[in-house]
Amino acid sequence: MWLARCGYLVAGLCAATAQAAPLDCETLKAEIETKIQSQGVANYTLEVVDNAEVHDPSMVVGTCAGGTRKIIYQKNNE
Q1: Does some domain include residue 6?
Q2: Which of 30, 37, 65, 69 has its C-alpha lying 20 to 30 A from 23's C-alpha?
């Protein structure tokens, strides 16, 4: 994917200078949800929040929107 943006590769220079596009939060959330469900986990919540809303860094399972938002996981006790 980064090769298409660069058009060439010279001893890793392109890979080091290419900027990755910010991940779409809903797309990343869906990918994480698929992985959680494949492990048989039930009764959980995934939520996309602004960085300032993260109170427990151990709940963060993803970063999106150019690093400005986080996806947090919370296990429900039901």
Answers
A1: no
A2: 37
Residue 4 within a domain: no
d(CA 65, CA 50) in angstroms, rounded, equals: 10
CB atoms within 10 A of CB 61: 17
**Among 58, 65, 62, CA closest to 35:** 62
Task: Return the ∠ at Cα 17 (arms to 15 and 64), rounded to 5°.
Answer: 85
Predicted structure pTM score: 0.69
Per run of 10 residues, the mean pLDDT along the chain (length 78 residues) is 37 43 87 95 95 96 94 90
Which residue intervals of 1-78 are DSSP H helices?
Answer: 2-6, 13-17, 25-38
